Amino acid sequence: MGRIMKTILGIDLGTSSVKAMLLNVDAGVVGVRAKEYEVDIPHPGFAEQNPERWWDSLVEVLGWLREHHRDAFDSVCAVGYSGQMHGLVLTGTDGRPVRPAIIWLDQRAGSQLEQISAVLSEEEMGRVFCNRVSSGFAFPSLLWVRDREPEIFARAAHVLSPKDYIRYKMTGEVGAEVVDASSTTMFDTAKRGWAWEVIARFHLPEEIFPTVHESADFAGTISPSCAAKTGLPEGIPVIYGAGDQPAQSIGNGVIKSGQIISNIGTGGQISAFAGTPVYDKKLRTNTFCHAIQNGWTIFGATLCSGMSLSWAKNKVLHVDSYEEVNELVSAVRPGADGLLYLPYLSGERTPHMNPNAKGVFFGMTLGQERGHFLRAVMEGVAYSLKDCLGIIQELGIDAPEIIASGGATASPQWLRIQADIFGKPVRASRVKEQACLGSCLLAAVGTGILPSLEEACGRFVSMDERIYLPDERNTDIYREGYAKYRKLYERLWDVMGE
Question: Which candidate in 106, 180, 188, 244 is catalytic?
Answer without folding.
Answer: 244
